[in-house]
Each structure stands twice: as C-alpha cells, then as structure tokens.
Amino acid sequence: MLHWTIAFLIVAIAAGVLGFGGIASTAAGIAQILFFVFVVLFALSLIRGLMSR
C-alpha cells in the first residue's frame, strides 16, 4: 500500500511541475489521505506490539 502513496506523490509532483492544477491537487489529496491512513496503522501496530510483550 505504501507503493500507492509514493506513486500518487510522484504523480502530484509531476503534474505540479507541468502546471496541471486539478490533477496535482487530486493526486496530492489522495497521497495525503493514504499517508494519514498509514500513520494510524503504524501507530496501532506499534501499540499492539508493545501490549503483546
């Protein structure tokens, strides 16, 4: 899943450089949502790992 975040980030940067505002904002929004989802999943797995010890 992290691969998708990186892919959308690259698309957002490329679209921003080329001046496609709508495409860049959409890809950046998706990348941001995926980033926060992964941060939450990381925190939950960290807490679960600490609780199992």
How would you describe this structure to a colleague?
With 53 residues, this protein is an all-alpha fold. The chain has one domain. It is built from 2 helices and no strands. It has helices at residues 2-18, 21-51. Helix 1 (2-18) packs antiparallel against helix 2 (21-51). The longest helix has 31 residues, at 21-51. The chain is rod-shaped, with a radius of gyration of 15 Å. The two termini are 27 Å apart. The mean pLDDT is 82.
List the helices and strands and how they pair.
Elements: H1 2-18, H2 21-51
* Share of β-strand residues: under 5%
Low-confidence stretches: none
Largest sheet: none
**How many domains is the backbone divided into?**
1
| Average pLDDT reading | 82
Number of H/I helices? 2
Assign an overall shape: rod-shaped
Rg, Cα atoms, Å: 15 Å
Number of strands: 0
Oligomer: single chain
Order of helices and strands: HH
The residue fraction in helices comes out at over 70%
Q: Would you tell me the structural class of the helices and strands?
A: mainly alpha
End-to-end gap: 27 Å
Summarize the structure in short.
This protein is mostly helical. It has helices at 2-18, 21-51.
